Amino acid sequence: MKAVRRTRSLPGLLLAVLALVALTLGAPQATAATGVSAIADALRKSPVYVDPAAAGQLSTADADTLARQIKNADKPLFIAVLPAGYPTQDLFTNLRTATGVTGLYAVRLGDPFDARADSAVLPRTAVRNLVTSVQGESAKAQLTDFTGRALANMGGKAPSSWGGGSAGGSGVSSTALITIGAVVVAGGAGAYALVRRNRRRREEERRAALDRLRVVVDEDITAFGEELDRLDFHPAEAGADDAMRADYERALNAYDQAKSAMSDARRPEDVRAVTQALEDGRFSLAQLAARREGRPLPERRPPCFFDPRHGPSVTDAAWTPPGGAPREVPVCAADATRLADGRDPVVREVDTEYGRRPYWDAGPAYGPWAGGYFGGGILPGLLLGTALGGWMSAPSYAADYGTGYGDFGGYDTGGYQGGDVSGADFDPGDFGDFGGGGDFGGGGGGGDSGDFGGGF
Q1: Are strands 327-331 and 315-319 parallel, antiparallel or unpaired?
Q2: How buried is 240 (Cβ within 10 angstroms: 0-12 exposed, 13-18 middle, 19+ buried)?
C-alpha cells in the first residue's frame, strides 16, 4: 500500500506544481478585478484599463482606440476607469508603486477624474491644469481630450512591456526567465554607470545655471541695497512710530536674508529664496512710504512683471508678447503709464549667448529667479507663450529645476525617465493622497497636500 501511495502521489504533486506555475505565469484573472495589483498588472500590458464594474463608462472599442493612440505616441500615459465608490486612500501612490513605471497616471472613478505624474514626465502644475481643463465632460470625451492634451505635453517613452510579449504569458520557460535575469543583472552595471554620468552632467548644468543666475541676483541685491541707502528715514526721527520702525526693520532683515541665501545657494532652485526675500523687503518699503505720507497701506501685490526691481505692482495691464496671446500682467505705475500711452515698458534684460534679452526669453535657468518674485500660482498665466513659460512646462525643466511653476524643489529623479521601470523608487509627493484623508471629491486645490482639486 505504501508503494502504491508513493506511485500515485507523484502525478498529483506534479499537477499541483504545474497548477502553481500556471497561476504564477498566467493571466491574473483569478484575482479581484478591482484590486490595485490587478489594475497595475493590466497597465503594465496596456495603457488603458477599464474595470468590469465600470464597463458602462467606456466601451471596449473606445478603450482600444485610446490605447492605440497612447502606444502610437510612445508616451507613458496610464488610464484606469474604475467604478464609483472605489477606495481612494493612497490610490495613486499605491497604483504607481504596484505598476512600478515612471509615467502619468489618470483615473476616472465614477464621474470624478484626477491624475498624478512623476515630475520627470510632467510638472505638477501642468498635471493640475490638464485635469482642470477636462472637468465635467462625459467619460469618453474627458478621456479623449485629456489623452490628446497630455500626449502633446508630456515626456518620456512608453514602457517596453507594451510592445508585445507580456510578462504574464504562460509560455515563458524557466530557462528563458533565467536568461532574462542574467541579462538584467549584466545590464545593471551599465545602467548604473549611465545614471552616474547623467547625474554628473546634471550637476554641471546646475552649476553653470547658478553662475548665470548669480550675476542677475547680485544686481537685484545691489539695487535693493541702494534703495535702502537712499531712504530718508531714521527710526528715531520725529513722527516715526512703531509700525514704521517695524517696516524698516523688516526691509533691513530682508536685505540681510537675501545676501545670506545667495551666499549659501548651491543649486539654481535655491535662488528662489533670495528673490522672495527681496520682494518681501520691497513691500515693507512700500508700506513704510505709505505710513510716512499718510496714504492708505498698499495691498500685497506681485512685483512689476517687466522688472521686479520696479517694486510692487499697482494695477494689471494688458500685454501681448511677440507671437503670443494677450494677457493681464501686474505692472508698476510708470509702466502702466507707458503702456497706456502706447509706449514700450522698461523691461529687465539679462545677458545671453545671443546678446541682451528679456528675462522671459533668456532660458530655463531663470525659472527659480522668477518663481521667487511671482509665487502663489500666477506664474503660468504670466509666462504663457514666452520661451521661459515653454521651458518651464517641459518635463526636462521639471526634472532639472523642480516640479512645477510654483515648486522649484529640484527633486532628483535618480536618472529615471518616463517609461522606465523604477519600482517603488519615485517621489510620493508627486502622487500624494486624495486630500481630506481619502475623501473622494474632498480636494481643496492645495498643491502641497498633493490634492490638485481636480476631483479626488
Answers
A1: antiparallel
A2: middle
Q: Which residues contact 47 (CB under 8 A, 6 or more apart)?
A: 66, 67, 70, 71, 77, 78, 79, 158, 162
d(CA 258, CA 260): 5
**How many residues in the chain?**
456
Q: How far is CA 12 from CA 8, 17, 30, 249, in A?
A: 7, 9, 22, 85
What would the pLDDT profile of 34-48 be if each residue is shown by its tens digit? 789 999 999 999 999
Exposure string of 294-321, with b = 16+ CB inside 10 Å and e = fewer, is: eeeeeeebbbbbbbbbbbbbbeebebeb
- Rounded CA gap, 52 and 82, in Å? 8
Is pTM beyond 0.70? Reply is no
Q: How does strand 349-352 pair with strand 355-358?
A: antiparallel
Q: How far is CA 145 from CA 110, 142, 247, 422, in A?
A: 17, 5, 50, 28
Cβ atoms of 410 and 75 closer than 8 Å: no
Spatial strand order of the sheet with 48-50 comes to 48-50, 77-82, 104-109, 113-117
Structure confidence by residue, pLDDT tens digits, 219-238: 999 999 999 999 888 998 88
